[in-house]
Design a protein that fits this description.
- The protein has 4 domains: about 210 residues, Hypothetical protein af1432 (Orthogonal Bundle), CATH 1.10.3210; about 230 residues, P-loop containing nucleotide triphosphate hydrolases (Rossmann fold); about 180 residues, P-loop containing nucleotide triphosphate hydrolases (Rossmann fold, 3-Layer(aba) Sandwich); about 80 residues, no CATH class.
- Helices cover about 50% and strands about 10% of the residues.
- The protein contains 30 helices and 21 strands.
- The radius of gyration is 29 Å and the shape is globular.
- It starts with a strand and ends in an 11-residue tail after the last strand.
- Keywords: Antiviral defense, ATP-binding, Coiled coil, Helicase, Hydrolase, Metal-binding, Nuclease, Nucleotide-binding.
Length: about 775
């Protein structure tokens, strides 16, 4: 009899493929555990119950054709022969049990005084009884199954398992190991072992099931890329800024040679606009070269809006590599929620589904991605995220603009990165112009960085901290308005809309930018503003924090509503950015609403705003050369005042491996706070949007899952271009709430959407979405 794991694949073939693939993914220290996982994770499919299910058109699942529990028991049965006194069998049980879903807490579901033949919990009793029934079914085809397991050298274990039926004995041994592991687990190492095993299994399982032939991962050569970089910039004028950038680059390169052997965590602290993208990337390349082995470079950034820019800069360095265009994804990919699903390789013309899997597995030498993808993989329980956990092993991780991480998570991020450097043998490079108080033991690669901060005096921060209402601010703005370009950065959408409304008839060209505008319009607006500034037009842009990272605007004057000091300094980076002007002023106001509340506290809370105001209060003017000390004072005060409770609770969950069912269990960790009061709505605003909407409806109606997924992936980014998240209370504006997806027809868009300011909201309503 032939046994199938999937309609087109024999179980034995699948098990051997998974073993081959996961062997390449997993740390060699866990070779035996990885092998046991590979060869046992689908053991439960050797039943006639499952074979009828997989080979028939009726895909109704029932307990008898499930395979997780019985497979997990068989895996543990073998593991106990090799790991009788540590937690590996517990991890093997948990990994197999949850390999088709998100990983959950290690729980045998047994009473503390459990002894053999005393299973009195109905849920577990039912699972055990089903496992017995499955074993009895396997006995009918014992010789066929044994033949398969003889091929991989596990026939002895199969014989013993079928004949002994040691289910209660296995559970009893597991329970003892679980108690021991929970009692003595204090370092976090077990978490990394479990995640590595789970990741290697689920990644290999999905690749085998999808029949993907993995392309070769290619690694960049330092000398070739450096030569391309030098040619690219050889005609640049040797102005002061370029000389400083070159000096910083060279110093980092020299410093890393002298410190790499005794350190795993590094930092590059340099002023805004000094070329940190190339500086950090080439530091990682040099580190890879010095370590003498191929290591992935994971370049992570806070926002999707800046990934394309960094990706393009690094991608351009590869143009002199023969045949690069045809196999570019083997060298470099970008991975974030808005990225196009394409994987370029001469190996195969990958479908969208296969391309997505390769990208999500980080199957490339260089990965440009977001903090969300990186940190929710390091701290996560979701199957889709954890597929790539194994790709972090021995990687070089760059964190660019690390100050963008929510302060409540900084100590947690410090813990997980330090642990990754220890247990995954990672190297970490942290880059920022406003270094926060984490990873303080990092080896600084720009050791005399303060001198570079002292070289710059492009901007000055001028605090005006007396509470001021919007109407009074507008009046003051008009009184002081000069023939200059202005950027006004607000804290909430409502605040920004009010200011724009007051200024739009000023006689000047006034534009607006925030996440209240459709993504397709946002891109055009950024390009429009950039072009106007390059042409020296004296425009006024009213915006939100959306401009503070990855948007290379260069205004004469910036006005920033009160915010944390690091945000104010980021805002200053949009003023006189290239140092070509005499000097740029960054005015900091404290705007309040009609009730006297600060707009800033709605976004950042009272503590951070009070700390910033306290530091700025007695200052009349702070020059850029003072920013380094300013940010240092700010983070010291934050560290004193900000509770680390959230970080500590998540840290405990990692160490104790609480994946679920607790207030701060790992499944609760998210860098992005989801707002339950918002819904995504598709705007059928023009002919292109209408065409995309119709394609979406057709894709949704496809019954065959793979064909449906392929079509959805083809149009997903176009769909997002015309999708906005709007308050739930406005859902009545949607044309037909019974539609498959919430949408606003063109006629409704004409009523509720403005081409300049975006979605129309109630006059006095306040929102603090960026």
């Amino acid at each position: 009899m032939k046994f199938y794991s999937h309609p087109d694949k024999l179980i034995l073939t699948h098990l051997m493929e998974v073993n081959k693939i996961s062997r390449a993914y997993c740390d060699k220290k866990y070779k035996k555990a990885e092998e046991i996982l590979s060869f046992t994770h689908d053991f439960g499919k050797y039943t006639t119950f499952f074979q009828r299910y997989i080979l028939s058109k009726d895909k109704t699942k029932n307990d008898l054709n499930s395979h997780g529990f019985i497979s997990a028991l068989f895996g543990v049965f073998i593991a106990l022969d090799f790991y009788d006194d540590n937690a590996i069998p517990v991890f093997i049980y948990n990994c197999i049990l949850h390999h088709h879903g998100s990983i959950k807490n290690v729980d045998m579901n047994l009473p503390k005084n459990f002894r053999s033949h005393r299973i009195d919990k109905p849920e577990l009793r039912e699972k055990v009884d089903i496992a017995y029934e499955q074993i009895e079914d396997m006995e009918k085809n014992k010789e066929f199954i044994k033949s398969d397991y003889k091929t991989i050298g596990y026939d002895k274990y199969f014989d013993e398992f079928i004949s002994q039926k040691p289910i209660e004995k296995i559970l009893n041994r597991l329970k003892k190991l679980q108690y021991k592991f929970e009692y003595y687990n204090e370092s976090g190492e077990d978490y990394f072992i479990s995640q590595m095993l789970y990741s290697s299994l689920i990644a290999a399982d999905k690749i085998s099931a999808s029949n993907i032939e993995l392309p070769e991962i290619k690694f960049a050569n330092f000398n070739i890329l450096n030569e391309t970089k030098n040619k690219k910039f050889k005609n640049d004028s040797r102005n002061d800024m370029n000389l400083i950038r070159s000096q910083i680059f060279d110093e980092v390169q020299e410093q890393i040679k002298s410190v790499y052997e005794n350190n795993k965590i590094f930092s590059i602290t340099a002023p805004t606009g000094t070329g940190k993208t190339y500086c950090g990337f080439f530091a990682a390349l040099k580190l890879k070269e010095l370590l003498g082995e191929d290591r992935k470079i994971i370049y992570s950034l806070p926002f999707t809006s800046i990934i394309n820019q960094n990706y393009s800069s690094i991608y351009s360095l590869f143009k002199n590599i023969p045949n690069f265009e045809n196999e570019s994804s083997e060298y470099i990919i970008k991975h974030h929620s808005l990225a196009d699903i394409e994987y370029s390789s001469e190996h195969e013309d990958y479908t969208k589904i296969k391309a997505e899997m390769l990208i999500e597995n980080w199957n490339s030498g260089i990965v440009i991605t977001t903090f969300v993808q990186l940190l929710e993989t390091l701290i996560g329980n979701k199957n889709r995220m954890l597929k790539k956990f194994n790709a972090l092993y021995k990687s070089i991780i760059i964190l660019d603009e690390v100050q963008a991480i929510d302060i409540k998570y900084l100590k947690l991020v410090e813990f997980i990165l330090t642990a990754a450097s220890k247990y995954l043998d990672c190297r970490i490079i942290m880059m920022t112009a406003t270094k926060p108080l984490i990873l303080s033991d990092a080896a600084e690669l720009l050791s005399d960085n303060k001198k570079y901060f002292n070289m710059f005096n492009r901007t000055s921060i001028i605090p005006r901290l007396e509470p001021i209402k919007i109407e009074n601010f507008i009046e003051e703005f008009y009184d002081n308005m000069e023939d200059k370009s202005y950027l006004i950065i607000c804290n909430t959408i409502a605040q920004s809309l009010k200011i724009y409304k007051e200024l739009k008839n000023s006689g000047r060209k006034v534009l607006y930018l925030s996440t209240n505008i459709l993504p397709c319009h946002r891109k055009k607006r950024i390009d429009e503003v950039t072009k106007m500034l390059e042409n020296n037009e004296k425009i006024i842009l009213v915006s939100t924090q959306v401009v503070e990272a990855g948007v290379d605007f260069d205004f004469d004057v910036v006005i920033r509503d009160i915010a944390p000091i690091d945000s104010i300094i980021q805002a200053a980076g949009r003023c006189n950015r290239n140092g070509k002007k005499k000097g740029g002023n960054v005015f900091v106001y404290s705007m309040i609403d009609n009730s006297g509340s600060y707009y800033g506290t709605r976004v950042y809370g009272h503590t951070l705003i009070d700390i910033s105001k306290g530091i700025l209060y007695d200052k009349k003017c702070i020059e850029e050369r003072e920013y380094f000390d300013l940010i240092g004072k700010y983070f010291i005060e934050v560290d004193k005042n900000k509770s680390h409770e959230v970080s500590e609770k998540f840290k405990e969950s990692i160490i104790k491996m609480y994946f679920s069912d607790k207030d701060y269990s790992i499944d609760k960790f998210s860098l992005i706070n989801e707002n339950d009061n918002y819904v995504d709505v598709f705007f059928r605003i023009n002919d292109e949007a209408e065409e995309i909407y119709n394609k979406l409806l057709k894709a949704i109606s496809i019954k065959e899952i793979e064909a449906k997924s392929e079509k959805m992936l083809e149009i997903k980014n176009k769909v997002r271009e015309y999708t906005l998240s709007i308050p739930l209370k406005y859902v009545d504006r949607v044309n037909d709430k019974n539609d498959i997806i919430l949408n606003l027809p063109k006629s409704a868009c004409e009523v509720y959407y403005d081409d300049m300011t975006g979605y129309k909201r109630e006059e006095e309503e306040d929102f603090f979405v960026m």
